[in-house]
Design goal:
- The structure is a homodimer of 171-residue chains.
- Chain A has 171 residues and is of the alpha/beta class.
- In chain A, strands 3-2-1-5-4-6 form a six-stranded parallel β-sheet. In chain A, strands 7-8 form a two-stranded antiparallel sheet.
- In chain A, helix 1 runs parallel beside helix 2 and helix 1 runs parallel beside helix 6.
- The longest helix of chain A is centred in the N-terminal third of the chain and has 17 residues.
- Chains A and B meet through helix 1, strand 4, helix 5, strand 6 and helix 6 of A and helix 1, strand 4, helix 5, strand 6 and helix 6 of B.
- Chains A, B: It is an enzyme of class 2 (transferase).
Chain lengths: 171, 171
């Protein structure tokens, strides 16, 4: 699988703490290698690092004082997920054809204009308001099918079951 | 498209306000007709009803004092989304073959045992911890492909664009 990273824009620590945590955990579970947060938030970083510590994988989370610089200095293909963008199903083949590693940008409520301008693709998962978590999951699933089935090497792992909750702890 | 509904279990108003709002908006945007919340939360209901008022569609949100009764008295096929379940890709054809309308159950951190017992399918979108918002989006997308492209009849609608934010207001 290609490398992909996520840049989370406009994170407001009090309001967005749990949504940003879900964005980060979705990024990890669907195969991203890193997420950048536009504002420092030690609680989000701690929650995500605890999951990595228990469940494994090679995923990093860091805050950046300058998200615009992260985007403008990145040599990855920039795909901004926004309800205002073009329908993903009209663009997914083009994105795959580019054959490049991807930096996804996901915003909180309203992103600054530079995000639209710097992005190679402004892409919508439908044009209704819903969730950056849902948008990231669908976009990653379309670009990296079944990546959520990746096995990690963690101390903890789930034993899939039709009927109950079961985990293996190899620590 | 079949009817589907969502039951949100274990909603804790302070902690889960925004995640539950994202679950509800994802349910609406991906084609569900209704969401039940396991605990009353007027702020979540207000946020979701404002979106329905502006963007249209026929989606309702209500709280229920007894989520177990909603599930046990439902005649819909019950699909519980959980990281402990069986991989969705091994079950999606079976679920489609059932040809029934679906009640999705999505929990907060830990759901009571009755959810596993009452559900017809306990299904995982990968077995890593991530997000009930991501899980619902992927499950709905697999069962109702492209349902997120449904057009609503709202006063507000987005004009999809490769470069900028644009809305039509027909109110």
């Amino acid at each position: 699988m290609s490398i992909c990273e996520v840049l989370r824009i406009g994170h407001r620590p009090e309001r967005d703490k749990r949504i940003t945590t879900h964005v980060a955990l979705t990024a990890r579970a669907f195969g991203a290698s890193r997420i950048y947060l536009s504002n420092p938030d030690s609680r989000v970083i701690k929650s995500v690092e605890e999951v990595v510590d228990k469940f494994g994988g090679d995923f990093s989370i860091e805050s950046t004082p300058n998200p615009k610089k992260v985007a403008s200095s990145s040599n990855l293909l920039i795909v901004h997920l926004t309800m205002f963008g073009l329908p993903i199903d009209t663009k997914v083949e083009d994105i795959i054809t580019e054959g490049r590693d991807i930096l996804f940008i996901v915003g909180a409520e309203k992103v600054p204009a530079w995000v639209f301008e710097l992005s190679d693709y402004n892409i919508a998962i439908g044009n209704q308001p819903h969730s950056e978590v849902a948008a990231l999951a669908i976009a990653m699933n379309k670009l990296y099918p079944n990546s959520y089935n990746t096995e990690f090497d963690g101390k903890l792992s789930v034993i899939p079951s039709a009927t109950h909750r079961e985990m293996k702890d190899s620590s």
